[in-house]
Amino acid sequence: MTDNKPGFTIYGEPIRGRSCGSCKLCCTLLPVELETSKKPANVKCQHVCSKGCSIYENRPAPCRYFNCRWLFDKHADNLRRPDKTGYVIDPMLDGILADEKAMDVIQVWVDPERRDAHRDPELREYLSRMFDIYRLPAIIRWSSTKAMFLIPPQATKEGEWMEIGGDHMNMKTEIEMKALYNQAVQEEIKDG
Question: Taking the complete model, does pTM exceed 0.90, yes or no?
Fold first, then answer.
């Protein structure tokens, strides 16, 4: 990201007129690290009830501070609520290695029962706009270990969306990936 670009916001107040309502998709799709345990991706949280969260007033910190991008990102104005689309755009960037270089990416968690939800034209438009502003490609996640790298048309020679997955993705455990990513970042800093 260049210095004249605005910072990528990871948290904000909900856009006027937007609320979770009956949407609880983040409570299933996203993994959550808790003090004493970890809720895996694609496992419905034990506290989800018909009205939302049964422990809402005392929910754990990761849940208290989470807002999906649909709720607060002004660039997400054309997107529909996550439960209607089958995907949640994580407010936190993730780090990946591409050709052994550390790279930040936007994470989109997709309901594995709606695998093609990432092809929603409004989502693709949003991701394309995010690339124009922040130079961030995306990673489409169906779980913590199943994912696809998504590059917008303006960043490819062909001028088309590029989906890199399957054999081209070398998925590692979260701990392995963090170590490799941090090592690559340190090498980039050292190399100037």
Answer: no
